[in-house]
Amino acid sequence: MAKVNGATLMARSLKQQGVGYMFGIVGFPVQPIAAAAQAEGIRYIGMRNEQSASYAAQAVGYLTGRPGAALVVSGPGVVHGLAGLANAQQNCWPMILIGGASATHQNGMGAFQEERQVQIASPFCKFAHAVEHVRRIPFYVEMATRYSIYGRPGATYLDMPDDIILGEVEEENVHHAATVADPPRMQALDADIEQALNVLESAERPLVIVGKGMAWSRAEDEVRAFIERTQVPFLASPMGKGIMDDSHPLSVGAARSHALQEADVIILLGARLNWIMHFGLPPRFNKNVRIVQVDIAPEAISQNVPAEVGLVGDGKAIVGQMNKALAGRQWFYPKDTPWHAAIAEKSAANAKQIQPMIDDNSSPLNYYRAFKDISAWLPKNAVIIGEGANTMDIGRTQMPNHEARVRLDAGSYGTMGIGMGFTIAAAVVHPDRPTISVSGDSAIGFSGMEIETACRYNLPVKIVVLNNGGIGGGIGHLPDDKTGIPPRALIWGARYDKMMEAFGGNGFHVEDPAHLRGALDEAMAHPGPALVNVLLNPEAGRKPQKFGWHTS
Ligand SMILES: Cc1ncc(C[n+]2csc(CCOP(=O)(O)OP(=O)(O)O)c2C)c(N)n1
Ligand SMILES: [Mg+2]
Prior knowledge:
By secondary structure, the protein is of the alpha/beta class. It contains 20 helices and 19 strands. The termini are far apart. The site of magnesium ion has 7 residues, from α17.
């Protein structure tokens, strides 16, 4: 009779559940799982830190619709991987963290890297469990997969003790599990759909907010049909960007603050009224705003602002329902309204305000001048990763997205460190698309050693570092007295391009704006990984903000 061990059964179960990618770092006791994953046809990417592995796994989950796996060693490996679990929970992205654990018969004895792993993972997971018998591995992998993608997507954790990984069972004794189908698409009641459209029709200044929940449910066709049919202006959340082309004439991206402040009815599609949306509260929102909210999670409805209509279910299904119901109505939002005019006027004023910075050719560059060349250089189908403070926030406004699921950034949790994990994940999922990361000089430091990973797998990632010598606005040259280095300061002009060269990729260093485009083009022409280090003026900032730094 044939026997199978825990490692192979784990790999087979993941493969059966459509888990196609695993990111990890091997060591005790998980090495056999990585080897089995490769043998079973799962793409295994060896990373340099478990944080990046767990960030990469969730990006795969978001991009492909099936969870990515992160494989980590016991104790400190699991602790590092928790960063990804927390981020995945906040972003509502699916992943499975698989933590090795010391052998069960050593529990409590002070085993090598022994830790209470299920307990520490649980607060950051939808489902966390230890596997207690080899034959039940398919059961737990099915459950971890299902929890990660059904309902609000998120993170799951499986604890794999050494004796379970190495343990064997007769194949005929394995408890096989069904393959998890794609998530069921729940719909709303027809009466609620009609009520939502009644609220919309009564609006004077309507606005649609498109969040990344729509990208997760692959609702881009339905959302486009809805917006074009109703002619209502829309605003994308940071990672909802691209579901509607940023260059669409109904986009209010360039007049965000005004649109949020003045809208009297908001159709909130797969976005939360959390800090990114200023909680939906004054002074950033109209105090009498009426909300129609579409969300997959019932408990998200009415968070911070009571929703007049709550539509709970799948984004694609519900927006499709609304489109169907619109067929029976004549209404659309007229072109000639003061609302459209005010948004256009505000957009033009904002564009005028930043134009001098875009045109400023002085050395070293300011952010807007750098993004002028970066945006012109970006291929239309690029996956763009943004990370940093100013670098990310200004980049979001200056780098357009044209498709769903092509922008990844620090997200709902505001996490620095996602950069290289997300970049590597995008490159392996989309070998047909250019993957471009634009990172602050602080941000790149959190995951910079993964540049070696990108070089090792020869992934064609292009990294641009906007180097202003610090966190959210540098301070220029460091003082001679090194004891008094300001907390925000980093080495201005540090040669991150040389890190790339050290591992065999192509590095470029740019100080003069006249050389930026040429360096970007050369980086793109080179088939493998490349990094363009762009010296920015440490004094460079954002356009004057009406509201504060973090929340604008
Ligand atoms: C894990 C984590 N640690 C620290 C922070 C605080 N933080 C916010 S933005 C940022 C870095 C911003 O600097 P940089 O990446 O150089 O971009 P810049 O604004 O200078 O363009 C840091 C450290 C964070 N958001 N996440
Ligand atoms: Mg910086």
